[in-house]
């Protein structure tokens, strides 16, 4: 099954995010190893986009919720905290 946002096919969760944002995800979260100057320029661009569209964060949350609801198989969720494993005494071990 293929999924499209507008006329663009979204293959991965990153594709959905970029198409929903209308900008590369890296604009908002940065990239590893960016310099202070690159970070400042990226943040300035992000501020300009938010100033032009103050409802963008709310729109994005709504879009993300819809995409997740309609396509849960696209997102492999890994729990941040794993349940603690029960420790059992080994046979012959001192308690």
Describe the model.
- The protein is mainly alpha-helical and 95 residues long.
- The protein is built from four helices and two strands.
- It has helices at residues 13-21, 26-29, 36-52, 56-70; strands at residues 4-5, 8-9.
- Strands 1-2 form a two-stranded antiparallel sheet.
- Helix 1 runs antiparallel to helix 4.
- The protein is extended.
- The chain starts with a strand and ends in a 25-residue tail after the last helix.
- The model has no long low-confidence stretch (mean pLDDT 77).
Descriptive key words:
extended; mainly alpha; 4 helices; two-stranded antiparallel sheet; 2 strands; 95 residues
Which of globular, elongated, flat, extended, rod-shaped describes the shape? extended
End-to-end gap: 55 Å
Helices, by number, come to 4
- The residue fraction in helices comes out at 40-55%
Say what oligomer this is. Answer: single chain
Strand percentage, roughly? under 5%
Average pLDDT for all residues: 77
Order of helices and strands: EEHHHH
Strand order of the largest sheet: 1-2
Main structural class: mainly alpha
Rg, alpha carbons: 21 Å
Largest sheet: 2 strands, antiparallel
Q: What are the segments in which pLDDT stays under 50 over at least 5 consecutive residues? A: none
Brief description of this entry?
By secondary structure, the chain is mainly α.
Topology:
Elements: E1 4-5, E2 8-9, H1 13-21, H2 26-29, H3 36-52, H4 56-70
Antiparallel strand pairs: 1-2
């Amino acid at each position: 099954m293929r999924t499209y946002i507008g006329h663009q096919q979204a293959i991965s969760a990153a594709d959905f995010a970029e198409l929903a944002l209308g900008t590369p995800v890296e604009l908002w979260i940065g990239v590893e190893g960016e310099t202070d100057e690159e970070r400042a320029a990226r943040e300035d661009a992000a501020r300009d986009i938010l100033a032009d569209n103050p409802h963008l964060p709310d729109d994005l949350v709504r879009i993300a919720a819809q995409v997740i609801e309609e396509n849960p198989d696209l997102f492999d969720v890994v729990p941040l905290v794993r349940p603690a494993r029960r420790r059992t005494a080994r046979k012959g071990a001192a308690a």
